[in-house]
Amino acid sequence: MTVVEQTTPAAPAKQKQVSQSYWALVWWKFKRNRIAVLGGILLLSFYFGFVFIPEFLSPYELNHTSDFVEAPPTKLHFIDTEGKFHLQPFVYGMERKLDFKTRARTYVEDTTRMYPISLFIHGDEYKLLGFIPSDLHLYGVDQKANPEAIVLIMGADALGRDWFTRILYGGRLSLMIGLIGQVMTIIFGMTLGVMSGYYGGMIDQVIQRTTEFLNAFPDIPLFMALAAAIPTFWSPIAVYFMLTIILSFVRWGGLARQVRGLILSLREREYVLAAKSAGASDARIMFRHLLPGTMSHVIVIATLAIPGMILSETALSWLGLGLRAPLTSWGVLLQDAATVRAIHTTPWELWTVPFILVTILAYNMLGDGLRDALDPYGTR
């Protein structure tokens, strides 16, 4: 007699539910684009480091001066003069010498003085995020034990200030003026663009002729004229905000025209007609029903336009018409490298240029990736 074992049927495996919403598809397609992800990571790193914690990342405070005027970048060493390897990097002391024939200032290493470079070292006092007192820096030398020690990984300027520190602080203003300026541009462009496309008629004519009037002027002369109107007795912070408003005022026209074109194609859709028949106000239809349909396009335009804002501020400050000392931005720093003498004697002051280029490339990589991701049903 055989016994038949009865087995209970296995429970069906639970399948993982995958969201098929529009934004889920956008994120899925965006993260597959490695170049766009790299651009986003670079920008997040730049904004976090340059805007929020430049005091911590830099070895000195912004206005920290030294006797090493226009000193070249200090060399990091792991092997001393006796051939002994050190796990902790160090720098030698520097001595300033003057060539009486050429009247040139030179610096030579003093191998009898060796200063180790440490992480998370105490130095100049500052306020993190503007209100947290601290004196902790990412790296540096112990100046309390060795007051004559200094580390200048990107050299020093004409006042003996660390150039790397100035680049970090300058990035804060340059990056923020691009971001704040583009936010204001989006507000102006989207508001006027949706009004132009929805109402049409005389309102459309006035807005479009205004954009054509602004676009008729070359950018640099128009920037120069508007920036020159800023009173010289204003405080640097007031100049900063006024320059941001000027850049936003000049740049909103292109976005307004593109939003207008999108609104023209959306205002006759069924859901808009349904909102009208339900008695919705014009403001509700424009900003609740029509404007969200343009957001994917606006996001791409914004990421591609922010580099233009940064370059405009850099160009104006380099020409002396934008931000001025004591404010520090990348454009202000480029003024120090604007002469043939500076390029010949202090070429390390051109280190500002790679930071600008990397920022612009990162924005372009991110914008190109967002353009493809926001069309998840496309073939690309």
Structure commentary:
It is a single chain. The protein is an alpha+beta fold and 380 residues long. It folds into 2 domains: 83 residues, no CATH class; 209 residues, MetI-like fold (Orthogonal Bundle). It is 53% helix and 13% strand. The protein is built from 13 helices and 5 strands. The strands form 2 sheets. Strands 1-2-3 form a 3-stranded antiparallel β-sheet, with no helix packed on it. A two-stranded antiparallel sheet has the order 4-5. Strand 4 and strand 5 form a beta hairpin. Helix 2 packs across helix 4, helix 4 crosses helix 11 and helix 7 runs antiparallel to helix 10. The longest helix has 37 residues. It is elongated. The N and C termini lie far apart (67 Å). The mean pLDDT is 82.
How do the helices and strands line up, and which of them pair or pack?
Elements: H1 22-32, H2 34-52, H3 54-57, E1 77-79, E2 85-99, E3 104-116, E4 118-128, E5 132-140, H4 163-199, H5 201-215, H6 219-228, H7 236-266, H8 270-277, H9 282-290, H10 295-318, H11 330-336, H12 340-345, H13 352-373
Antiparallel strand pairs: 1-2, 2-3, 4-5
Helix pairs in contact: 1-13, 2-4, 2-13, 4-5, 4-7, 4-10, 4-11, 5-7, 6-7, 7-10, 8-9, 10-11, 10-13
